[in-house]
Write a structure and sequence with these properties.
By secondary structure, the protein is mostly beta strands. It is 5% helix and 25% strand.
Length: 226
């Protein structure tokens, strides 16, 4: 097991204290701690603390883990907002925070994480609207904002996220029409807009294989590719 570089273990220890993590941390090498994964050089790359009964807020000091690529904290009891300091972690490719009790509307800062491939914020009690700026996440292929309390319309700019393969906005309070720009998402395998208050007709959207497309008030006429 590689020895961790610099002050990573001290910084990580303080982060875990904030999260009220109760796991074993007796080893001096934090690369051996549960849920911590380092590369061969001893740099922390992944923090996975799913279903660990974490409480409190997501620590802004996570930005000290400057080389972090994956942050996975799903199925806990975390509260508060998503800290804007996460935008400093430009190596992040995966953020999974589903099934927590987060609040607020601070999604705009995530648009700076242009290496993101997975953004999973299902059932986090998020409010507010979906910012246009998320369209900057061109590398994203899995995008899940379902089962929140999001309002407003679906931004037409999201049609620029041409790498999307799975796109989930179901079970929110979204209104308005479905943007015709979503027809640009030609790599989609799953699109779920169900249980919103969308109106109008569904644009001609090609779906690669599987479709969950039940839009209250909208007339569905998608095209399936075999």
């Amino acid at each position: 097991m590689p020895n961790p570089k610099g002050t990573q273990c001290t910084e990580l220890g303080a982060i875990l204290d904030t999260l009220k993590y109760k796991g074993d941390r007796t080893a001096t090498n934090c690369c051996t701690w549960h849920g911590v994964y380092c590369n061969d050089n001893g740099t922390i790359k992944t923090l996975n603390l799913d279903s660990e009964k974490l409480t409190g807020t997501i620590p802004p000091t996570l930005d000290k883990l400057t080389s972090l690529e994956a942050l996975e904290l799903r199925n806990n009891q975390l509260t508060g907002t998503i800290p804007p300091t996460l935008s400093k972690l430009t190596s992040l490719t995966s953020i999974i925070l589903s099934n927590n009790q987060l609040t607020g509307t601070n999604l705009d800062s995530l648009s700076k994480l242009t290496s993101l491939k997975i953004l999973e914020l299902h059932n986090c009690q998020l409010t507010g609207s979906i910012p246009d700026s998320l369209s900057k996440l061109k590398s994203l292929y899995f995008f899940d904002l379902s089962s929140n309390q999001l309002t407003g319309t679906i931004p037409p700019a999201l049609g620029q996220m041409t790498g999307l393969q799975s796109f989930w906005l179901s079970n929110n309070q979204l209104t308005g029409t479905i943007p015709s720009t979503l027809s640009q998402l030609t790599g989609l395998g799953i699109l779920d807009l169900s249980n919103n208050s969308l109106t109008g007709t569904v644009p001609a959207i090609k779906i690669r294989c599987e479709l969950f497309f039940f839009c209250t008030g909208a007339t569905s006429n998608p095209h399936f590719d075999p």
